[in-house]
Amino acid sequence: MNETALASAGSDELFRKTLAFCGYTGYAAIILFIIGGVWLGGMLPALPHANDLPSEVVGKVSENLFEIRIGSIFMIASFALFGTFGAGMAMQTRRCETNPGFSYIQVVFASAGTTIALLVAFAWALMVFRPEIYHPSILLMWADFAYFLALFSVPLFGGWCVTIALPIFLAEEGKEPFPRWAAYVNLWAVLLFAPGQMVMFFKDGPFSWHGVVAMWIPFVAFFVWIAVMSFLMVKIANAEDN
To answer: How much is the average pLDDT of 234-242?
Structure first.
């Protein structure tokens, strides 16, 4: 961790506490998603599959209505925290800028990414709102919509990572907002998100939205990225003032 970033964080007690708060909300987002999206909600691993018939989706959803509904509540809480998580990274980037630039761009990406994520939870909740009335194909469309929002939006979430990496690479030595290795983590995240674009072309196999390559790799990479950047924010916030 560079000394300038640590010193700038340590000299402002409110900033340090706010940055730590933003970092911890990243951890909270991961925990809430594990509860809502993995344990209860059936988003990961995917309960409905991209190659399921509409009647099969109705059957799977109807058997797990209560769990999916409760899971949707946890998921929307998780995704709402993307806003504070993203704000923390923008704050730290702004701290190391003479004039605002990349920090503002990060705020735009964080806002858009949070909106997309919230729409994922909305779509998942609507899928189980009244399955006894919806035409079966509508339920399948809601599932498609949720996964396309989450996985097909690679340029948005990838762009967010790039705008975190660039100010690290372009800053003067010793004035980087995050350590240099964090820039490479962000660029690796972009590459790992990329298979999500393949959901447009496949309804079965590893590149479908229920497949290993197009779903598991981007999802896991995304939450590992959140964990890494949350760790860095908390570390900066807790560092002693030099």
So the answer is: 78
